[in-house]
């Protein structure tokens, strides 16, 4: 009897992680599925169950001038942030993993880069806004991009650093022995081996920038409107049906970027 109870307990313990994961997925994705379902309602204030299916609100979103302008702004800021953030992340990863600095210096640099991860986003946004005002940048595209770069830098740096640490030093040493200089080794060996991580970094940084609200809210001023700011404006006026469709489109863009990044694998 005791052994049977033990076997049942072990079997239940083995299933526990799967149950926890399943419950977490339900908790996270049920609201998304509900929004997607309601976005297909033709009514301005949809309820469950919806009265028929319609793409009316998707058409309204894609033909709304303000939303399209905000979408183009978010795409532009996201692309610039992704490229520059990955370049800075590559430099940071090199310093942390391959530089000739002491271990204490490299760890200190890693901690400094990681600080935005441990500080509430609202504090980071307020601090960047105050610093931007003190140096005379004010509000607009440049402060928003700088703020986004500050936010995505830890993600790009440590994503690339994880791959950088796996590279075989003997490949670079062999290239140097054959007469290649540092620039040639970096261009022909290091970059190709880091390429999947660099691509993933670009996509993750873009997704983070595209969805960032607080930093943009503090730094945009009246001249810059991104998709999160436009959606926030619609929330204030209670445009429920419009918001459902717009939210689904934003989720799709972000999910595609993050999904593609997560499928990348290092070269064999």
Automatic annotation (TrEMBL):
Per the record, the GO terms for biological process are:
transmembrane transport
What Pfam families would the database entry show? BPD_transp_1 (PF00528)
Tell me which UniProt keywords the record has, alphabetically: Cell membrane, Membrane, Transmembrane, Transmembrane helix, Transport
Domain of life here? Archaea
Where is this protein localized, as stated in its record? Cell membrane
Protein topology in the membrane: Multi-pass membrane protein
Q: Does the keyword Oxidoreductase apply?
A: no
Name of the protein this chain belongs to: Spermidine/putrescine ABC transporter permease
Lineage, highest ranks first: Archaea, Methanobacteriati, Methanobacteriota, Stenosarchaea group, Halobacteria
């Amino acid at each position: 009897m005791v052994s049977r109870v033990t076997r049942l307990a072990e079997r239940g313990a083995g299933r526990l992680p799967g149950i926890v994961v399943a419950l977490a997925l339900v908790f996270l994705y049920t609201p998304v599925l509900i929004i997607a379902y309601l976005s297909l309602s033709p009514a301005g204030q949809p309820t469950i169950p919806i009265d028929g299916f319609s793409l009316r609100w998707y058409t309204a979103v894609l033909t709304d001038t303000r939303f399209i302008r905000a979408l183009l702004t978010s795409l532009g800021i996201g692309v610039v942030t992704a490229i520059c953030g990955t370049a800075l992340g590559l430099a940071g990863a090199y310093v942390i993993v391959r530089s000739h600095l002491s271990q204490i210096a490299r760890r200190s640099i890693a901690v400094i880069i990681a600080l935005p991860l441990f500080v509430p986003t609202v504090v980071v946004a307020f601090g960047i806004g105050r610093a931007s005002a003190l140096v005379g940048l004010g509000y607009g595209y440049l402060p928003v991009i700088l703020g986004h770069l500050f936010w995505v830098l830890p993600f790009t740096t440590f994503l690339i650093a994880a791959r950088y640490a796996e590279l075989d030093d003997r490949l670079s040493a062999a290239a140097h022995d054959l007469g290649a200089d540092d620039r040639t080794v970096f261009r022909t060996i290091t970059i190709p081996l880091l390429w999947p991580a660099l691509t993933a970094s670009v996509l993750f940084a873009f997704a983070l920038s595209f969805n960032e609200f607080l930093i943009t809210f503090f730094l945009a001023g009246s001249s810059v409107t991104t998709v999160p700011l436009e959606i926030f404006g619609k929330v204030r006026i209670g445009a429920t049906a419009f918001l459902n469709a717009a939210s689904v489109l934003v989720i799709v863009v972000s999910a595609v970027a993050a999904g593609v990044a997560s499928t990348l694998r290092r070269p064999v």
